[in-house]
Every structure is written in structure tokens, then in C-alpha cells.
Amino acid sequence: MKTRARLPRLIATGATLALALSLSACGDGNGGASADDGKIHILVYGDATNKIEKQVVDKFNETSDVKAVLDTIPGADYQQKLQTIISTPQAPDVFFNWGGGSIKPFVKADLLLPLDDFIKKNPELESKFLPSVFNNAVVDGKPYGIPMRGTQPVLLFHNKNVLKKAGVQPPKTWDDLLDAVEKLKDEGVTPIALGGGDVWPTQMWFQYLYDRIAGPELFQKALDGDKSAWEAPESKKALKMIRELVDAGAFGKNYDSVKYTNGGSVALVAQGKAGFELMGSWYYSQQLTDHPDFAEKGLGYSAFPTVAGGKGDPKNVAGNTNNYYSVLKKTKHPEAVAKFLELMYTDEFVKSQLDVGNLTTTTNTDEFIETSATPEYSRFQYDLVANAPSFQLSWDQAYPQSAASNMHKAIQQFFNGQLDADGFIKAMQALPTE
Amino acid sequence: MTTKITSAPPAAGLRKEPRRRPAASPSVSTVGRPGFAWALPAAVFFTLFAIVPLVMVAVLSFMSWNGLGSPQWVGTDNWSRLWDDPVMLKSVWLTLLLTALGVVIQTPLSILLGVWAAGYQRNRAVLSVIYFIPLLLSATAVSVLWRALLDPNFGIPAEASWLFGDGNLFGEQATAIGVLAFVSTWQFTPFHTLIYQGAARSIPQVLYQAAEIDGAGRYRQFFHITLPQLRNSMITSMILMIVGGLTTFETVLILTQGGPGTDTTISAYYMYDKAFKGFDFGAGSAIALALVVAATIISLVVVKVSGYDKMRSSMEGVS
């Protein structure tokens, strides 16, 4: 009986609205819990890394008069829930985010505190972090976030055995990749596994190719509101190359039915049914969980290939730069918050993050990398990120959240041929940029 | 096969009424009913959780709100944007198509299964219980299950490529809609089977006995006794299917996310997409309100056309 679903949905909508309205009503009166209880509330995405955030809070509370409280929101709905509470009295003082477009609407709504003053008092709050990472939480020229977890660059992973059998080396250039695609096809395997059902894995191909061909400036221009950027010749060239790759059968035919999130594409590579997969650095731990034997013996990785004649620096990377702590303007304890943020680059913090496999992006990370759970892999990533002139934040996170859904649709439709290049360009131009 | 007339108990129950309240007239329509106070709890909850949100949604559909700050009045902006939105139009057609597919596929299946399950043989009772299981699972679990079962490389399509080809079920519109219709059928047919099973069991056996005496075979009995007697249940079940079809959501959310592209974006999912992914609560509310109005109109039309509102007894010609 499908009618079941209707009532709960109405209730949910009603409750959200009632909540929002009643909260805003009592807001100016007696003030909320977080405003007056003499503590700073820190809101974090709930997952396994929370134990480190808990340690940091405990350590902070040992010395500070103003105590910190760690609140977590578990699950994938973090951004939706954050957006619901952030303009209410229940809003936290400090909160976890992805930088870029995930905080831009909050900046526009004048909810966030620019961190200029903190940095003026303690320049280490900026200088202790890798610039390419720190810059992704800069909005309209002002810094709004301090990196607080690990970086997750996107790498080209491969199955060593499959590549060896086909006589293929990890590709250094785009032509190498096209060549590898043909050889792998001859072997009867899908050259590149792709979880097209999730769409964001498909997007990774777009963001890397655009960066290689046009450099990060073109995307930045589009993000700043100049929609003509999408019509640039570099944009058209990138689209043409994606089209060629898809038409060459690099991803097989059924990629839109495959998902990364249910382990489908992961298993394709692990079982030798596919050669490559382009994925964030968390791929290693995913393989380690799903297919431990393969992860230790057969999983290889390399940087995204270079593109001859491209304007982008071949050392650029793309992916999730890091997560950030941002501060609400209305916090009652800015000094305590500043002290708390200074803990994000201590040696102890870096070591405990490396212990659980998170690669921090502080300048002192270099010294401790050998203590990481996977030293070789961490070293590769760190050098990649530290040497990258630019770190392209994933497109759907660089744009405001409200654009992500339509962006994904356009990407999927271009990839499977429902949209041509002009259709894709129009769809991208229609996205909101603020 | 028992020969007992199963309709006896309810009739007796009705006859008791006048005895308890001697003042009332013996006619059924004037039998005393509980006062309004009895309806109060339900009325309060319905007002609080259905009417009030509905009014709020109606108000919000004339505002622009991204969840931050205060909503702004924008007049009929949301509505005119929706009117011109090709995806919205497409979503309406997709919703109607999926609803129609649901009714067309599930109704014959559940009538046959229900009538079959109405027999009192023990094996039928056992099998009916097994058939009922999909309904006990949450729509979310069912959708996750089928997404995994239909994985092109490791699921059923990989083993049966003669039927599924390259297995790109979620990558093309026709097959994606097929999957949605199939999964809904798999999950909700048991419920409608249950309705028909109950209805088939309450058909008086005397009708079949008379037919047998007159020399009517099994098929004639089915088409001339069973089907006409199931008429009211059929309408009930179809209204549930239509309303359910119009508000289908979880299945799409988990199986296809409205994709490929917007090819399975039905109206209810488009509402979610606008409101909770695009943070455009105004447009989302407009779609929600349009859905409520559309579902109400369609239900009313079905009720009128089918004569359900006249509540004719399915027992005519019996007592």
C-alpha cells in the first residue's frame, strides 16, 4: 500500500516547517541553548573520524575556561540538516564543511565570521596549511575555513594484474590512456570501471580534463558568474575528448547501471573485470574493506594523465581538498574559538589523523608521514598535493549546493549522449552560481 | 469446500443495534452513532499533521526560500516557472505512465492470486503467507535489494544476458521505467491480493452452488459471479493503486534517482529534488500542492465514475 508513504512525508514537511517557524519566533526572545550556556558548540559530520575530534575537544577542555562540546550529525544528510539549523538559535559556534560552495550561501546570508582577525593575531592559522588547500575555503577574498581532516585527491587506480596481462603501463599521457583502452578492450575487459549510477564519479572525468586543458582559471571564471566560460574553445575541446573516450568504449556500455556506492565498480576492478577506476584517495581503504587481498597485492595508482597542449599545469590535482571548520558570526566566544582552531596544526593532531589514514594538509605533516598507516601511499598523495599549483575542488562542491542536482543531470546526459556539447554548455550556464 | 454462508455474522451485528437503543428506528440509516467527541483525537491529529502543513505548503508556494533567513514573497513566480518547465511536464507524464502501468499490471495479477488464495486448501494458505512477505519489507529495503540484484556485472542480468543484453537497465528510459514498474508490482501485488482474497471469500457460496446446478463451468463462474462480486473491492484497490502511484517516491529515490538524466523523474521525486537538493522550497511546495490537488481530483473522478460513492451492496440478490 503506497499511500503509507504520503502521511509521514506530510508530517515530516509540517514538522520541519513548524520547527523552523517556532524556532525563529522564540529566537530574539530568550535566546537558544548554545548562545547562553557559556560553551562553544562544535558540529561535525558523524563518522569514524569523530573519535579524533573528540580527543581534540577533550584536550582543549583541559586548559580552556570556555568549554567545547562536540555535536555530531550522522549520515549523508549533513548539509540539509545544517542548512535547517544554521539560522536558528540552535546553530553551532563552529561547524564542519567542505569549503567552496558548501559555505558560500552562508557567507552571502552574512552568517559566517571572516577569519582575518584571527589570522592577524596568529598568522600560523594560515601559514601552517598548504595554500592550495587553504584557498578553497576563501570566499570573495576572505578566509572562512580552517582545514580539519585529511585531503582526498582523485587518483587513477588500476589492477596491476590486468594491466600486466594486456601489456599496459599506468598512463602518463592522454594518448597512453587511449592506447591502454584499446589494449584492454582486446583483452575482453572493461577498460575503465565507472559508477555512473552515482554520477559524481562521472564528474571526476570532467573536472580533471577541464583542468588539464583549460587550467583552473576557466572553471573559476564560470564559478564567478561569467557564463561565457562554458562556451570557450577549451571547454568544447574537453567535451570532445570526453565524447571520444566514451565512444571508444572506455567505460563499456552499462556504466549508468553500475554504482560505486554499492560496491559494483569496486568489485569490477578487484575481480579483474576492469583495468582502471578514477576515484578519490578513499578508494584504497574501500578496497581494503571489500577486497583486502587485492588491495594489498594488486592495487596500483597513478596521477591523472597529462594532456598534450593543455593550458593547465600537469601537476594540478582535483578532488576533495579537505574538510574545514567555519565559525559563525554570532559566536559569543571568538577568543576561545581561535584557540580551538589553533589545535588543527599541532604535531599531536597530525599524528593522530595519520594513524587512522587521514592525510592532513599542514606544513608539518611531512615530518610525520612515515608514522602513517600506509606510509608509501600517504607520501605519494602528500607530494602530489604539496607540489600542486592548484587543487580543483570537486565541481559539485565548488558550486552552491543548489546547483549540484542539475549539474549531475547535465553530466550524466552528456556522457550517455542525451545531450550534445551545446546542450551541456547551456545546462551548465543555467546553474546558479550563488 | 464448505457450504456455510459466510455473510451471517455482520448481518446479525446490525440487527443487535436497535435492541440496545430502543428509541431509535429499526432502519439502518438512523442507527445511533457516537458523538463528535469520538472523532476529536483523529480530527486534532489530522488538522495538526495534514491540514496545517498543507496550508503552510500553499503559502510557501508563493514565496522564495532556500532555508536560510526569511522567506520572500514572489507572487506566482514559482507557479509560472513550473508551468514553463519541460522537466515538470515530463514528470507529470512519467507519473501518469507509472501509475497506469501499476494499475494495468497489478490488478489482473492480484485478482487471479487473490481468488486463488481464497480457497481453503492448506497449500494455498502456506503459499499465501509466502507471497505476503514482500509487503512486510520496507520500500527502502526492497529498492536497495533490487538495485543490487539488477547490477549489470554481478546481478541477474550478468547471468541472463540472452534476456538483458548488456544489462544497462538503469541507463535507458524504457528499461528504467520497466524496473520501477516491476519492483512496485513485486512489492505491492501482495497487498492487493489480500484485498481480493478477503473479498472473494465473502462471496456467498450459494451463488456458486446455484451456478453449478445451472451447469455453469469454472470460467463462466469466474467471469459472471466472481468478477462482478469483486467490483467494489476492485475500485478500492484501484484507488489505492492510483493514489499510491501518484505519490511513489522511495522506489525512485533509491533505484534511479530520477535518472538517467531526468528520464524517471516523476513529480513526487521532482518535488524532493527541488526542495531538498536544490534548496528551492518555494518551487518544491508548488509541486507538492499541485500533486495534492491532482491526486484529489483523480480520486474523486474514479469514485464518481465507478459509482463507488453510492456504496451499492455487493450482496444484492442474496438476502
From TrEMBL, chain B:
Region of interest (Disordered), residue spans: 1-30
Membrane topology note: Multi-pass membrane protein
In terms of InterPro entries, this protein maps to: ABC_transporter_permease, MetI-like, MetI-like_sf
UniProt name for this protein: Xylobiose transport system permease protein
Record family assignment: Belongs to the binding-protein-dependent transport system permease family.
Query: Where's the ABC transmembrane type-1 domain?
Result: 92-302
Keywords of this protein's UniProt record, alphabetized?
A: Cell membrane, Membrane, Transmembrane, Transmembrane helix, Transport
Q: Which CDD domains match?
A: TM_PBP2 (cd06261)
